[in-house]
Amino acid sequence: MSVEGGTARSDAGGFVSKMLVMVELEARKLKHDPTELLTRAIQPALWLLVFGVVLNEIRIIPTGDLTYLEFLTPGVLAQSVLFISIFYGISIVWERDLGIVQKFLVSPTPRSALVTGKALSAGLRSLSQALIVYVLAMVIGVSLDLGPLNIIVMVVTVLLGAAVFATLSLIIACLVKTRERFMGIGQMITMPLFFASNAIYPISIMPTWLQVISYGNPLTYMVDALRCTMIVGGTTDFGLGVDLAVLGGFALVLVLIAGRLYPRVGW
Amino acid sequence: MEPASGVEALGIVRTEGLTRKFNGFTAVDSIELDIREGEVFGLLGPNGAGKTTTIKMLTTLLPPTSGKATVDGRDVRARPAQVRQVIGYVPQMLSADATLTGYENLLIFAKLHDVPRREAGMRARQALGDMGLSEFGDRLVRTYSGGMVRRLEIAQSALHRPRVLFLDEPTIGLDPLARRAVWEMVRRLREEHGTTIFLTTHLMDEADALCDRVGIMHRSHLVALGEPARLKEEAGVATLDEVFIHHTGGTIETGGSIREIQRERMTARRLG
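Above: the input entities. Below: the structure tokens describing the complete assembly.
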């Protein structure tokens, strides 16, 4: 219900059901046009099958007990999630120019439910990447831990990571409002986020200044969680609890900011 | 839904000194409106007169800078969530999602507008039938003509039986036949559900044919308000066009920013 009147429970129920309607919308779109999911498979394939295989041969990066390919696999999944989610905001710019955002905003849907729904929708797209990376990893002989609990933690991590970057993207879209500027900023922040993380090399070999940055980078915690979850014998630097808490904290703060900014898109 | 108590006698949409400024520019200046329940009201004026800004404030999209507006007795500034429960809105742009089917467009918005889950599918199918779109319901909207998209959008915004339906330039870019189909829908909504219709247009003949009362906006001000016949009589002229000239001292020219014109062209192209 509304500002006053509705009970806390019906508010929460309304929030969740509206959020799921937004995800349903995304699922229906993907069903009609799944080609994007396939074209998105190219990049992780290159990273694993070319970059990974070559660096695995020359053994130049210290990765502890893991082979380089084992070390790299969770990094490639995290990177795919980052790339999909960070450009997700472009759809908001598009929907704004078409008037779709305005119609969302005029419906009695809590703004936070619209934003969280968008974040989960990016998670839905990202999960398709998980499937692709798992298949690729099996092809190149990476020993994946396929225990049900591991799969569940992996899914949760991917959803949280996607939520963080998609919401960040949404905030940028709300601020810049045009496609050109959005693409510029998206390109500008993606690679730094990627390189200032433990996705393709361990933090320990970075210069100190880069280490400091990578500790503040949510991607680092996503990779850390995936590394100890996906790979047989994989370890964590920070602990799974810390990883998920940091990602959850980032997601919450960003959703709150985006919930404030999103209505301005309709102006 | 019952109207809030004590507003029956007053209009269903009311504004007092409603004003919106953008960085010093006053887009809407102290508008006073009083829309009666069940009427078709048209806000007329050229691009850039402030029609869309007014609609955006009434639909809670844009907070007013000053003044007051209520819909069904609910204040748009203090109780926007409550206003959203009783209104429907069709923006100027063609806003149906082209990557979904017509049925899905209806279904998703029925759910967003709190139509119970079990009923949503049924109402969506029924609305498709009412619009003569049944056989196209499961095709992607991408394949629809402009007139079909508009009809779909109006149905989409009326699924939850709003008390007031806001239509921003509902016939822009449509051919005469499709325009008439939109007019028919508007009349039917009013007759069958008693829906109050608030629309904007820059077509004077459209306002004359469709609206019970019209308001004429010119450079952010409301310069005339009343029944088309009375406005014509008072000005001593035969057409609304002349009424417009009488009140503004000029013909309706297409002004507007580059952005608005771009948007209009984009809409026209999609209607192609």
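Note for the figure: Chain B has one domain: 13-96+144-271.
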